[in-house]
């Protein structure tokens, strides 16, 4: 797959709190930094997402007395996993990962800043109705093909890729530049549902060889 001038690298949630030692650490999450930095030199268009939660966010287990992280509750928009407190606005852990170096980045999409709804996808909040505005940004600039990398493959990367495909964009996940939480088979399920949605998968070295 040869890269085209209008291709986009979408870097999803490569932030301190998702790295080893963080409150919501993705196993081996820091391993995505080096391949993403390399990929960032190949794309003319680099975009990032950033989890950006208020301290009273509805998805935090700490805001539900008697509940523990990774339990699930029902909210008006559906079933919600309760997470450890993470990526609180302005905190060090909400910052991008140390060593992430993407000087060509053109846009940062902050998500999860609404207290009453969680946000996985770069395109649509977890209520599946509230847009982030990313689709309009891409369409207005004539950008149609997205390559996704980051954290976590089975949550924010997968939701972003599937929403991209549903919005009419071509989406492909860079497998070795992403890492998963993998709770109860969530990674296998994510790859299956992404495939059914028409999302492709590739590796960073294959893109580097064809740049």
What does this molecule look like?
The model has no long low-confidence stretch (mean pLDDT 96). By secondary structure, the protein is an alpha/beta fold. Helix 3 packs parallel to helix 4. The termini are close together. It has a single domain (8-49, 89-209), classed as Rossmann fold, CATH 3.40.50.850. A hairpin with a 2-residue loop joins strand 3 and strand 4 (78-81). The strands form two sheets. A six-stranded parallel β-sheet has the order 5-2-1-6-7-8, sandwiched between helices. A two-stranded antiparallel sheet has the order 3-4. Helices cover 22% and strands 22% of the residues. It has helices at 33-40, 134-141, 153-166, 186-196, 204-209; strands spanning 8-12, 45-51, 72-75, 78-81, 105-111, 145-151, 170-179, 200-202.
Brief overview:
The chain is built from five helices and eight strands. It is an alpha/beta fold.
Rg, Å, rounded: 16 Å
* Helix/strand/pairing category: alpha/beta
Bin the helical content. Answer: 10-25%
SS elements, strand count:
8
Q: How much of the residues is beta strand, in percent?
A: 15-25%
CATH class: Alpha Beta
Overall 3D shape: globular
Q: In angstroms, what separates the terminal alpha carbons?
A: 9 Å
